[in-house]
Amino acid sequence: MGFILRWIVTAIAVAAAVWIVPGVEVSSATESWVGVAVFALLLALLNMSIKPILQVLSLPITCLTLGIFYLVVNTFMLYLASWIATGLFDTGIVISSFGSAFVASIVISIVSSILSSVTGADNN
What we know:
This is Phage holin family protein. 74% of the residues lie in helices and 8% in strands. It has helices at 2-20, 32-49, 51-57, 59-64, 69-88, 98-119, and strands at residues 24-28, 91-95. It has a two-stranded antiparallel ribbon with strand order 1-2. Helix 1 crosses helix 2, helix 2 packs across helix 5 (69-88) and helix 5 crosses helix 6 (98-119). It is globular and about 45 Å long. The relative contact order is 0.21.
C-alpha cells in the first residue's frame, strides 16, 4: 500500500509541475492523465532504485555545495524518467530545457514533501 500511495503523491506533484512550470508538457497520444500516471510511476520506481546510488556517488559535491547539487540529481532523475517514458511507452512528460527541468524538480520536491507529510506516505 505504501508504494501506491507514493505513486499517487508523485502523480499529483508531477501534475502540479506540468501545470505551473512552462516548458514541461504532457506528451501523450491518449489522455493527459495517462501520461502523468506513467511518468509518475517511472519516476517513483527510479527514485526507489537508482536515486540512492546517485546520491551516494554525488555526496562529495553535494557537501561542497551545501546540498544544492541534490537538486541537480533530482533534475537528472526527471530527465531519465522522461526519456524512458517517451522512448518506451510513447507517453509521459516532455521537458524543453534544463531550466524548466530544474524548476520542475523544485516544484515536485515541495509538493511531494507536503503531500507525503499530510498523507503519511513518508512513514513507510
